[in-house]
Amino acid sequence: MGLLTILKKMKQKEREMRLLMLGLDNAGKTTILKKFNGEDISTISPTLGFNIQTLEHRGFKLNMWDVGGQKSLRSYWRNYFESTDGLVWVVDSADRLRLQDCKQELSTLLLEERLAGATLLVFANKQDLPGALSKEAIREELALDDIKSHHWCIIDCSAVTGENLLSGVDWLLDDIAARIFTAD
Amino acid sequence: MEPAHEFGEETDSAGDNGAAKVQDRLQKRNQARIDDVERRKEEKESQSVAEEKLEYFSSTFKREQMCIEDLLSGCSGADQGVVNQRLEEATIKIVQLQKFLNDSVLFLTQYELRQAQSALQKLQGSLAEIREKALPKKKFAFRARTKVADKVSEQETDSAPPYCTPPADLGEVVRGSSSKLFGFSNMDNQYLTKTSEEINKRDVLLSHLSNCKVRLYGSPSTLHLKHIDKCEILCGPVATSVFIDDCRNSTLSFPCQQLRTHSTTDTQVYLHVTSRAIIEDCHGVSFAPFSWSYPTLEEDFNVSGLNKDSNNWNQVDDFYWLAAGTPSPNWTTIPEADRKTNWDP
C-alpha cells in the first residue's frame, strides 16, 4: 500500500455531508451556490436540470445539489431526496406574489419521508433589493413556527452581496454535525 | 622453489580464504535479500485486509449479482404485489452493490472496475425494463396523476382564494405592502403610462389587462405580467427578472436580466436579455431583438445596471421540451421582414 492509497483512504473517511438546495424558480439557488463557491454570478441563467458542487468548508466535504425550481421541474425534486443531510430552502424575499406558492411547496416537502431526518435552513434571499420582506415577515408568512418535524432556522441573506451566506451554512453544518458525527 | 612454493601456497591459501569469504559474503547477502523479501511480504500481508482481496471482491460481487438476477427473473408471471416487492428489493440491492463497488475502487484494477461497472449497468437496465413491462399502468397513472396534481394545486392557488378572500393578486398585494408592488390591474381598452419616478427600482405588476397599450418609462426592479390579453406592453430596462404568466395575443418589449415565461400563447416578445429567457408550458411565442426606444432609455439602462451590448434574445430554453438536438416547436424567431419597427401608440 503506497502513500497515495493511504491518502485516498483517509480522504474517504473524511466527514461528508449532502445538502439539497430547493425553492421556487428565481429564488436565487444557483446564485447562492456560485457565490459560495466564489464563481462569477453575472451570467447565471434559469437552471434546466441541476448543478452539483463539492466543496470543502471547515473540514467538511459538502456535496451541494442545486435543482431547478421551475414548475415543470418540481416533480423531479423527489429524485434528489435520498440521503440528504440538510435541506436549504431558498426564498425570494421580494416575490410577495408567490409567497403562498412557496409556503405550499415547502410544506409538501416537509411531509416527505425521505427528508425526515434532514435539517432545514431557510434563506430569506435578496435582502439587497429595496422591496424585500424581512426575515420575520417571511417566517410568519411561511408559518415556520408550526414546523415541529425538523430542526430549522431562517437566515436573511443576499446572494448578490454574499451577506450572511456563511453564517447560514455554518449553522446548518453545526446542526448536522451535532446529529450525525456524535459517534466520533 | 621453496619460497616460490611457499608463496604459491600462501597465495593458494589466501585464494581459498578469499573465495570462502566471497562465498560467505554472497550467502549472507542472499540471506539478507530473502529475509527482506519475507519481511516485505509479511508487512504487505499485515496491512492488507481480507475485504480488500480481489477474490473476496469478485466472489461477493458475483454472489450479489446472481441474487439480483434471480430476483429480477422471478418477476415474470408473478402477481403485482410480489413483483412490486421484488423490484423494490432489487433496487435496494443494486444500490448496495454500487456502493460496494465504489468502496472497492481503491484496490481494483481498471479491467475489473470496468467489468463490474458494466455488470451493474446491465442489471440496472434489466431492472428498468422489467419495471416498464411489469408495471406499465402504474407508470402512466403516475405521470397523469402528477400532472393532475399540478393542475389542481395551480387551480387551488389561482382560483381557491376568491372563495374565501378577494382575488389572489389583489389580496396579496394588499397584505404585502402595496407601496412596494404596484402597477395596473383590471383594465380594458386603455392607454396607460408610468414615469421613471414612479417605477424606478420597484416591483411592477400588471394583471388582468385586455386590449390595453402600456408604456412604462423607467427601470423597475422586477416586472410581473399576469392574465394579459391582446395588449401591447413596452417597458424600460428591468434590473432583474420579468415574469410572464398567462398572457395571450399580445406584443411585449423590454430589456431584462432574465425572462421567465409561463402558460403563454401567441405572443411576440421584442427582447433584450443579458442572461437567458425561458418558456414553460407555452405555444406560439416568438422572439425578436428589443427595438423600442424613448428619450431616457440610455439613462434607464444605467440605472438597471444591464449590459447593453449582450443580448441573448434568441437563446430560449423551453422547460417543456427537453429533447436535445431538436429545436422546441413552442417558440420561433420573428423573421426580420415581419418585425415591428414603429412603436407609436
From TrEMBL, chain A:
<feature type="binding site">
    <location>
        <begin position="23"/>
        <end position="30"/>
    </location>
    <ligand>
        <name>GTP</name>
    </ligand>
</feature>
<keyword id="KW-0547">Nucleotide-binding</keyword>
<dbReference type="GO" id="GO:0005813">
    <property type="term" value="C:centrosome"/>
</dbReference>
<dbReference type="Pfam" id="PF00025">
    <property type="entry name" value="Arf"/>
</dbReference>
<dbReference type="GO" id="GO:0046872">
    <property type="term" value="F:metal ion binding"/>
</dbReference>
<protein>
    <recommendedName>
        <fullName>ADP-ribosylation factor-like protein 2</fullName>
    </recommendedName>
</protein>
<keyword id="KW-0342">GTP-binding</keyword>
<dbReference type="GO" id="GO:0003924">
    <property type="term" value="F:GTPase activity"/>
</dbReference>
<keyword id="KW-0460">Magnesium</keyword>
<feature type="binding site">
    <location>
        <position position="30"/>
    </location>
    <ligand>
        <name>Mg(2+)</name>
    </ligand>
</feature>
<comment type="similarity">
    <text>Belongs to the small GTPase superfamily. Arf family.</text>
</comment>
<feature type="binding site">
    <location>
        <begin position="125"/>
        <end position="128"/>
    </location>
    <ligand>
        <name>GTP</name>
    </ligand>
</feature>
<dbReference type="InterPro" id="IPR005225">
    <property type="entry name" value="Small_GTP-bd"/>
</dbReference>
<feature type="binding site">
    <location>
        <position position="69"/>
    </location>
    <ligand>
        <name>GTP</name>
    </ligand>
</feature>
<keyword id="KW-0519">Myristate</keyword>
<dbReference type="GO" id="GO:0005525">
    <property type="term" value="F:GTP binding"/>
</dbReference>
<dbReference type="InterPro" id="IPR044612">
    <property type="entry name" value="ARL2/3"/>
</dbReference>
<keyword id="KW-0449">Lipoprotein</keyword>
<dbReference type="InterPro" id="IPR045873">
    <property type="entry name" value="Arl2"/>
</dbReference>
<feature type="binding site">
    <location>
        <position position="47"/>
    </location>
    <ligand>
        <name>Mg(2+)</name>
    </ligand>
</feature>
<dbReference type="InterPro" id="IPR006689">
    <property type="entry name" value="Small_GTPase_ARF/SAR"/>
</dbReference>
<keyword id="KW-0479">Metal-binding</keyword>
TrEMBL record, chain B:
<feature type="region of interest" description="Disordered">
    <location>
        <begin position="1"/>
        <end position="49"/>
    </location>
</feature>
<keyword id="KW-0007">Acetylation</keyword>
<keyword id="KW-0963">Cytoplasm</keyword>
<keyword id="KW-0597">Phosphoprotein</keyword>
<dbReference type="InterPro" id="IPR038397">
    <property type="entry name" value="TBCC_N_sf"/>
</dbReference>
<comment type="function">
    <text>Tubulin-folding protein; involved in the final step of the tubulin folding pathway.</text>
</comment>
<dbReference type="GO" id="GO:0015631">
    <property type="term" value="F:tubulin binding"/>
</dbReference>
<protein>
    <recommendedName>
        <fullName>Tubulin-specific chaperone C</fullName>
    </recommendedName>
</protein>
<dbReference type="GO" id="GO:0005829">
    <property type="term" value="C:cytosol"/>
</dbReference>
<keyword id="KW-0143">Chaperone</keyword>
<feature type="compositionally biased region" description="Basic and acidic residues">
    <location>
        <begin position="22"/>
        <end position="49"/>
    </location>
</feature>
<dbReference type="InterPro" id="IPR017901">
    <property type="entry name" value="C-CAP_CF_C-like"/>
</dbReference>
<dbReference type="InterPro" id="IPR012945">
    <property type="entry name" value="Tubulin-bd_cofactor_C_dom"/>
</dbReference>
<dbReference type="Pfam" id="PF07986">
    <property type="entry name" value="TBCC"/>
</dbReference>
<comment type="similarity">
    <text>Belongs to the TBCC family.</text>
</comment>
<dbReference type="Pfam" id="PF16752">
    <property type="entry name" value="TBCC_N"/>
</dbReference>
<feature type="domain" description="C-CAP/cofactor C-like">
    <location>
        <begin position="167"/>
        <end position="321"/>
    </location>
</feature>
<dbReference type="InterPro" id="IPR027684">
    <property type="entry name" value="TBCC"/>
</dbReference>
<dbReference type="InterPro" id="IPR016098">
    <property type="entry name" value="CAP/MinC_C"/>
</dbReference>
<dbReference type="GO" id="GO:0007021">
    <property type="term" value="P:tubulin complex assembly"/>
</dbReference>
<dbReference type="GO" id="GO:0007023">
    <property type="term" value="P:post-chaperonin tubulin folding pathway"/>
</dbReference>
<comment type="subunit">
    <text>Supercomplex made of cofactors A to E. Cofactors A and D function by capturing and stabilizing tubulin in a quasi-native conformation. Cofactor E binds to the cofactor D-tubulin complex; interaction with cofactor C then causes the release of tubulin polypeptides that are committed to the native state.</text>
</comment>
